[in-house]
Amino acid sequence: MQNYPLYKKNINYLLNLPQKDKYDKTTKYAISSIGEKKIYITEFLFAKQRGYIKELRGHGEIDINYYKLLPFIFKYYQTKYFDTKSKRFIYMIDDNDGRKISHVLDDDGFLISIYLLRKNELKRFLKKAQLLYTNPDGEAPISPILSPARATFWRHLEMIEQLYQIFTSKPIYLFSISAHPHAISVNSLDITFFKPNIDFFKYDYLIITSKQTSEALKQYDKNDYIHMPSLCVSVASAKSYEELGGNILDIGGGYGDNLVDKIKSYPKTTKWLYLRAKVVASDFVSTCQNDGYDVDEIVVYESGCSKAIWNVEVKEDAILIFTSPSSVKCFLKNHTISPHAKVIVIGKTTAKALPKDVEYVISDKTSIQSCIEITKNL
After folding, report:
1. Are 210 and 339 found together in one domain?
2. What pTM, to 2 d.p., does this model score?
3. Which domain, by its residues, includes 324?
C-alpha cells in the first residue's frame, strides 16, 4: 500500500488527540483510500465519533484502536451500500455473528461515522439502502480470525492487534482445505465424494491418509465400519477418524511411504482396506502388494483445483504455505512463485511438486501449526 506510511502517521495523530473544548473542522487527514480516491477525517469528525463532544453521540463500543485497521478495511470491505435517506455510502464488514461494522462516507470522501448494525437494525437499514457492490476480496484476510467465538473483535484490543499484525507483516497464504487464524487461508481443492458399495466386514483394518476419507465415511452406516481400527498416516488423519468414534491402530510419520513398515509388521494374511483419493502421491500400496500383502484400494473421493486458488492474488514477497502436492500443482496452473516469496511445505512429497529452482523450508511436523511457527523466523 503506497500511502500507508502517511495513513499510519495521521491515524496515530488522531489516536493521541487529547480531549479539548474545540476541534479543528477544516484540516483533513488522509487515513485510507478506495482505488485512487483518498478517505479523510478531521479532528472534529474523529472527536464526534469517539464521543469526546458531549452534545454529540459517539460510538465508543468500538475500540479506538480499530482505527489502525482502516487503511486495510477499505480494501477488504465486503459490501457497499447507498443510503437513500442520508445520501451517503456505507462500506460494511461482517463480524460473523450477524452484525455489520458500518463505515459511512460522504461524497467528498470524509469518514462521517463508524457504527455497528445489529441483526434487527440491519433489516430496517436494508429497506432504505441500495446494494451497490460486493467486494470479491472481502473474505480475506479479515475473515480468518472472525469465528463466532471472536465475533466481537472490534471491542477487544488484543484481537484488533492480531488483525493489525496480519495486515502489516508479510502476508501468509495457506493453500489447504483447512484454515488457520494467522494466515490468509485459500481453499486449494474442491472435493467430490463417491459412495461405492463396500463390504467392510471382509477386512481387518482401514488405512486412512486424509481427513477427507473420514468425511467420505460419513456417507455410510457407522455400524458397518466403526469396529475396524485404522492405520493413519498422520495425527490429523487419526484425529478425524477418532472424531467419528473409531479406534486408531497406529500412526505413520506423515508420509504414505512410512506406512509400508507398519503394514509389513502384520501377517500377510491381514486384510487391509485403503480408502483413498482418485489421485495419490505415494505408491506404498503397490510396494506392499508386490511383497504379498493383502491391501485393497477403493476410491471414495477426488479433488480438483478450486476457483479460489486459481484467482487468488499473491504479493511477491509473501509467505506461501503448501500442504500437499495438489495444492502446489493447482497454484502453479495459474501462477508462478516469485523469487522474493518464502515457501514452506508440509513434507518431502509436497516439496517434490515444487519447481526445481524454488527454495523452500520443510516443516518439522506434518501439521499446519508447525508451518505457522516457521513463519515467525522468516
Report:
1. no
2. 0.51
3. 172-188+306-375
